[in-house]
Amino acid sequence: MAPKTKFTKEQIIDAAFEIARTEGVDSITIRKVAEKLGSSIAPIYVNFKEVGELVEEVYKKTFEVSRQILMEQNSGHPFHDIGVASIRFAREYPVLFRDLVMKKNDQAKHNEEETQGFIKMMRMDPDLNGLTDDELLAILLKMKIFQVGMSVMVANELLPGDFSEEQMIQVMSSAAEDVISAAKRRAERQ
């Protein structure tokens, strides 16, 4: 008869997530997770055949955390909320942010389903009324480039030390207003 599992799968994922949050995803090992739990490696192997499976679950949890931060934003302007959530994620989880954005990995590749979800959110934003899906997609790409750049600066502490989150959001909002205004002017000329 197999020994009873001392830890749930979720507890193991949480321990691995904490390692990734502070040391990076590449630092996750079965042994480190076991140490974090104060356990032998056996309970981890009962739930995961290899470390790769556990890392996949950590990425899933990371994206869940990111979506939760997005859901907590509720300004009435969903497009704005996407940018604010990115800045907050980069500030609260800089190591994970760098792992997702600054290292080549399959987890952060373009996801068409996610893009369409953002376009759907953008359609609800009153500032974006009257723009086509192609125009919204162009705005999303431009702002994603800007927002990822700003978030990289946040995660790597490249902004002045006294630069507050409110100032970051203001800079991002100003850039978004510029991009949206330009898109609307182009649409009017067509």
Automatic annotation (TrEMBL):
This protein's record includes keyword DNA-binding: yes
Keyword DNA-binding: yes
DNA-binding region(s), residue ranges: 29-48
Signal sequence annotation: none
GO molecular function: DNA binding
Origin superkingdom: Bacteria
Family annotation (PROSITE patterns): HTH_TETR_2
InterPro entries recorded: Homeodomain-like_sf, HTH_TetR, Tet_transcr_reg_TetR-rel_C_sf
Residue intervals of the HTH tetR-type domain: 6-66
Keywords annotated in UniProt: DNA-binding
Protein name listed in UniProt: TetR family transcriptional regulator
Native organism: Brevibacillus panacihumi W25
